[in-house]
């Protein structure tokens, strides 16, 4: 018997829900936040007395108030939590088109069979879209912004009031989608991981990563703070920070060198990846001539671990979902054949 396609709605816990997991009740959350604010107020007052600051009393009081508000705004968390719950209820009402609807918390997305879905609605923040995109295959993704006043929503082009019409058009295959290139890494022991934004390879502690690097028959042994492999979607994130740092240092040493010269503009659909080594160290056993470049479709960047422990590979900043990458492990990074399909406005 053929099963009816379903609509998946991927959700996330609010900050208040996460804090209540730790401190059990809302009143405990409020108490802990007030304690933090009080501690910061006393710290700033002690610091002012020791430094004999010339800051006026009014300006100092304003600084104290700003620090206190930042650490104890329990009302902000309550409001955020309430808005999320209310808009989620509205969303579920709006998208009732007769198809079964399945709510999935983000902690379960890696175990859910998205191939049963006619569409996937992501209801959270931009990072949730990036995480979901790695698991849904060719199923179109509709990003709905639960709180436009708080979320940038670069990957969340729709509000709840748009959801019914957008979903209907998506089911009828009339909606416009934007294809996003994903990165892929596979290891010699059969593990595989995708990235929407970027991969990190290195040590999960603040120690140097040791490894061999090979691209297009050029090889090198390296010791560094790790390596970033970025897609077009991720090229304005972590990768841009690495390039900006290199550019600023270059500009200090050579005024003709600017960050803009180092940044390769990539579109989300570009079928290549960019990679960069972080803080490479030159020694008798390590070199730094291969510190970055482009990885075209069909090419591989092969990395062999020389770490005796704590070596990891993870994607999109999700550190707890990692591949162990210690001595004996070989990883190949490439452009993935799978793409993400984001429904756009």
TrEMBL record:
Residues 35-55 are annotated as: Disordered. GO terms for molecular function: NAD+ kinase activity. Keywords: Kinase, Transferase. SUPFAM superfamilies: NAD kinase/diacylglycerol kinase-like. It comes from the Bacteria. GO terms for biological process: NAD+ metabolic process. The keyword Transferase applies. The keyword Transferase applies. This is Inorganic polyphosphate/ATP-NAD kinase. It comes from Mariniblastus fucicola. The lineage of its organism: Bacteria, Pseudomonadati, Planctomycetota, Planctomycetia, Pirellulales.
């Amino acid at each position: 018997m053929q099963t009816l396609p379903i609509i998946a709605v991927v959700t996330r816990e609010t900050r208040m829900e996460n804090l209540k997991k730790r401190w059990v009740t809302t009143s405990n959350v409020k108490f802990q936040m007030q304690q933090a604010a009080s501690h910061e107020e006393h710290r700033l007052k002690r610091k002012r007395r020791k430094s004999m600051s010339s800051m006026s009393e009014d300006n100092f009081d304003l600084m104290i108030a700003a620090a206190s508000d930042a650490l104890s705004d329990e009302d902000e968390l309550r409001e955020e939590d309430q808005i999320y719950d209310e808009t989620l209820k509205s969303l579920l009402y709006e998208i009732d088109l007769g198809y079964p609807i399945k709510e999935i918390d983000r902690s379960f997305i890696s175990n859910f069979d998205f191939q049963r879905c006619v569409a996937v609605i992501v209801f959270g923040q931009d990072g949730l879209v990036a995480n979901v995109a790695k698991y849904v295959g060719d199923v179109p993704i509709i990003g709905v912004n639960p709180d436009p006043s708080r979320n940038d929503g670069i990957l969340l082009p729709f509000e709840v009031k748009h959801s019914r019409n957008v979903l209907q058009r998506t089911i009828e295959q009339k909606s416009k989608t934007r294809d996003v290139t994903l990165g892929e890494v596979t290891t010699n022991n059969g593990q595989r991981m995708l990235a929407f934004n970027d991969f990190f390879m290195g040590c999960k502690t603040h120690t140097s990563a040791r490894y061999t690097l090979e691209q297009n028959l050029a090889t090198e042994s390296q010791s560094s703070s790790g390596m970033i492999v970025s897609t077009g979607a991720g090229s304005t994130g972590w990768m841009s920070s690495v390039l900006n740092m290199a550019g600023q240092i270059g500009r200090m040493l050579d005024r003709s060198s600017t960050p803009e010269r180092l940044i390769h503009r990539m579109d989300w659909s570009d079928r290549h990846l960019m990679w960069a080594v972080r803080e490479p160290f030159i020694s008798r056993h390590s070199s730094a001539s291969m510190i970055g470049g482009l990885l075209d479709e069909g090419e591989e960047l092969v990395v062999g671990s020389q770490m005796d422990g704590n070596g990891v590979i993870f994607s999109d900043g999700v550190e707890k979902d990692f591949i162990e990458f210690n001595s004996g492990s070989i990883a190949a990074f490439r452009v993935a054949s799978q793409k993400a399909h984001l429904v756009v406005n």
